[in-house]
Each structure stands twice: as C-alpha cells, then as structure tokens.
Amino acid sequence: MTQNSTTIDSSSMSRQAAADKIARILDAQFFRALCEPVRIEIILVLIRKGRSDVGAIAEELPQDRSVISRHLQVLERGGIVCASQEGRHVFYELDASASVQRFEAILGQLRALLPLCCPAKPR
Amino acid sequence: MTQNSTTIDSSSMSRQAAADKIARILDAQFFRALCEPVRIEIILVLIRKGRSDVGAIAEELPQDRSVISRHLQVLERGGIVCASQEGRHVFYELDASASVQRFEAILGQLRALLPLCCPAKPR
DNA sequence: TGTATATGTGCACATTCATGCACGCGTCAA
DNA sequence: TTGACGCGTGCATGAATGTGCACATATACA
Questions:
Q1: With a threshold of 0.90, does the pTM exceed it?
Q2: Which ranges of the sequence are coiled-coil (chains A, B) (predicted)?
C-alpha cells in the first residue's frame, strides 16, 4: 500500500532516476569491508601506526596473523587500503584519498534524495 | 615493522587523536545495515515508491514478508530508515537527512586523515 | 647454498546470519 | 463480537564467514 500508488506521481521519473544512480554507487562490497569490527580495528591501527606490514598490524590485535592477512585483502578489494610489496614484507596503508572520493560520490547522490525522501521533521 | 617505529613521530599524537575520532564515527552497525544486497534493494524500493508499508515493500521483492520485516528493523537500527505506525500498517521511509548527516560526519573526519594517511600518488 | 623470516593459502571448525514457515498479537471492518 | 488483515517473532535450516592451525612459497641473510 504505497502512497499515491493510484495517481501518476509527478516525481516518479526522478525517483526512478535517483534509484538508478543510488544503485550504481551503493556498492555492498565496499560497505561489507567496513561492517566487520576487526577490520575497523585494523583501520584504527593503520591510522595510529601509519604504513605497516602484516606482522606489525597483527601484533596490535588478538587475532592470528593469517586472519589479519585475510581481512587486509578484503579491505584492499573494497578500496579502503592499498598494498605495496617490499622484499618479504607487504606494507599496507590506508587509502584515505580513495575513501574520501567514495564517500563524496555517495553523499552527492544522497543529497539529491533529500527533496524526495525526507520524512516529516517535527523539530 | 612500522615506519619510524624507533623515532618519536611528531604526528603520533594527532594520529592517536584522529584514530579516536574515527573510532567514534565508524560504527560497524551502520555499515552492516548497508552491506546486505537485499537491504540495498529495499532502499531502492523506498526511493522508487516512497513511504510504504511492509507489505508493499515485500511485494517488490522475492523474499518472504517476514524477511523484509527483519531487514527493515536492521535498517531502522542503523538509522537509514524510520518507521511510523498507522493502525495495522507500519510505514517505513528512507531517512535521507539522517544518512546525509552521518556521511558528512564520516567525510569530515576522513578529510582530516588526508595529510596523515595518503599513500604516494604516482599519477 | 642453507637457514630464518614474512606472507599467503588449504583445511576444518564455530559462529553469525539470511531465509521461510507457523503462530500470536494488535487493529479494522461487518 | 467475530472474522479478516497487517505485522512481528520463535524456530529450524542452509549458506556465508570469521578463526586458527599447518603448510607452501618467496625473499633476505650468513
């Protein structure tokens, strides 16, 4: 039972277009990388210690080193961190620039929804 | 093996402060609501159809109505949608305003990380 | 060349979570 | 008051995923 389901909503076209744009940007893969508490902890470690290799990151966390390695792969696929190999070590670094661009794109499309999707604000 | 681990990094204090601020904002609960493809579909339905009740949303998706109901609860706890009961119906609506504020807060803290956490940009 | 170190991966296990069905509760209509 | 409708929840099941151990690979050092 949708409001105005029987009448032709003048904003239906823009709603559909907005939905299409949001669908392209709201990547579940990206958010999945951020929904795991341990991965959040890894991000915090990278902020505190800066560019570090797998062993150094794992030292700061209770999980096994192999687990941290896997989480770092997920973060890399999500575009949150970037890896660079130097000899035996693989250094990981927070890619704040890419994340900022990602969030800016989402925020831009989200602002376009404000006139369409804002609930009544009893403030 | 962290870079500059032996020397006192002049930005270590600001790094710690930045990590603390990020830790408060990067809520896994919020991202968990967005990492499920079905919940993304629900968001798209709410954009297309606007404020709708559970049954109307479930009509647009293959999952059972009870499943949609549970997903909507997760979205509500994450602050993505807001619910309002009217008689037998419970209407859900995308809270774009709250989401925009959420993303703006994250983006603000993320921009503060740019001078600290940017990888070398070979562009 | 041989050894130690750093990392990733296969495997098994435990936990979390999405899913659908059945049922109970609350509300509206007759 | 009785029946129909909308919604949420308990329960069981299967899939996805986090976790740790053992092992293989690659690289640096003596």
A1: no
A2: none
